[in-house]
Amino acid sequence: MRGRVHYAWVVAGVGFVALVMAAGFRSTAGVLLVPLHDEFAGATRRSAWPSP
Angle at Cα 21 formed by Cα 16 and Cα 22, nearest 5°? Predict the structure, then answer.
């Protein structure tokens, strides 16, 4: 019984990995928002309707 891992540790590990992945997925938009804005900000100004 020395080399076996208890099932609760497996569940805890999978839960921890899922939480870390979810946090990373949610922060992706915040990380990419500024570079995407810098890249495509001029494109929205060029294609916008003319102001009166």
Answer: 100
In this structure, which long-range contacts are made by residues 44-50, counting pairs with CB atoms below 8 Å and at least 24 apart in sequence? none
Amino acid, single-letter form, for residue 34: V
13 is written with which tokens? 């590990």
Backbone angles phi, psi at 22, to 5 degrees: -65, -40
Helix ranges, the chain (H): 7-47
pLDDT in tens, the chain (52 residues): 578 999 999 999 999 999 999 999 998 888 888 888 888 876 655 555 665 5
